[in-house]
Amino acid sequence: MPLPLDSARRLALEAGALIVSAINQTKRIDHKSAVDLVTDTDHQAEALIMDGLRNDFPDHAIVAEETSAGRPAEGPCWYVDPVDGTVNFVHGIPHCSVSIALLDNGHPSTAVVYDPCKNELFEAERGGGARLNGQPLAVSGAAALGDSLMVTGFPYDRRENPDRYLSFFKAFMVTARDIRRFGSAALDLAYIAAGRFDGFWEFKLEPWDTAAGWLLVEEAGGVVSDMDGAAFDPWSKRILASNGTIHQECVDLLIELRAEQGSS
Ligand code: IPD
Ligand code: CA
Ligand code: CA
Question: Does ligand 1 lie within 6 Å of residue 81's CB atom?
Fold first, then answer.
């Protein structure tokens, strides 16, 4: 049986090659909702990764975005997002990723996030640190939210609840140094691991968006939690990740906002 990291890395690179070959071509686009898109490349990349994982680890479960059947039973389970940042991909914006993580009874042990357009391969193993193209990663040294570059995303129900999400955006906008919305949650987390961003919050993400980035951030010395600071559950649809130093400031802000806006 291959090492999980070797297998995840090989499959992420192969899926990444599919993304690069298609990003500037005409795509077949289907709508999962008004603003949630899926392309042929999402399906092809997911099939490639699932075939590879099933071949290498026939006893492991797989939760993959386009074919997910829900929360798995206990045991080793792979979480796969074949194209994270599909809207960027559809528009030919070179900022998307392949995200693959192995969780053992809910805890991540292996993670790969690959940005094929920039050829940046982020990877981590529990206890072994996080790396970018082989170089060790560490979170930023930002000491306060006021000196921090935050990143977030707007959930797929943003047309139904715009004011709710904008209230969180506004609160961080007037507190942090600045905010980015780049469109790939897996890369948002990888960038925190790399010390590029200092903090990240988002609602309604799915476990395949966050599972790999979760381990990258922790192995780079950062913190990932629920928005109230409680232990992170990738099925909870709420995430706060940071360099650790600014975490409590973010938790305090989010607790206050969720009290005002409703805590879902
Ligand atoms: C999306 C991206 C985006 C986030 C969305 C996700 P997809 O994933 O991670 O940054 O804001 O909520 O669904 O659909 O491109 O795999
Ligand atoms: Ca995703
Ligand atoms: Ca996706």
Answer: yes
